Input
Amino acid sequence: MIFRGDFLTTQEASDLLGVKARQVRVLAEAGDIVRVARGVFDRTSVERHRAERGTGRTRTWAEHTAWGAVALLAGAAPLDLGDTQQYRLRASLLDITDPSELAIRLRDRATVTTWSGHRSAGDRVREELVIPGRRRLGLVEDAAIVDGYLHTSRIADLVRRHRLREDMTGSITLRHTSMDLDFVHRLATLNSTLAAIDAATSLDPRERGVGERALVRRLELFRENARR
Output
């Protein structure tokens, strides 16, 4: 596959995403990837879509179910899942060994958007987010990068107050969810599970590898605990 700088042709985007050319155009029309000209697409937006959504062959869990799976992997009790739902979810997790499959199944726990703004906005935005600790994964915290969770009801106000603009290459990543933020905060601070899930869809190969290896360990631990 030949990449031309920051752009991809329709065929290159099709090959990368594992979909037909017609579906590439559908994704662009829906705003899921960025079309910069006829038959030319922004490479970052395509790679981000692939990292977060895979090739479309893996079934994803609904938001509430995804958070239940995160909780089970983290060793916490899921929020508002019945016994039958928990049983089925545990069975599904026991069948998963591929960390990339797990990350894709969990993608609908939050809607991910990237933003840019004034250089002073990052620190102020960071204070309003739930941010999983990257240091637990052995990753260095980058002061220029902001990546965290907030409730869906708050995103419009946050964007307005900090004058953010949506930008596929921006340094501010907002993961908005309708899940109770206190629960998300608990999972984010309990151990490295949520940080690993986030890292496993990173565009940075090293960070993605760290996240995937951490997820493999969480899945192995989950299976060990299930056998006891």
About this structure: The beta strands are 7-9, 35-37, 40-42, 111-116, 146-151, 165-166, 172-177. The longest strand covers residues 111-116.
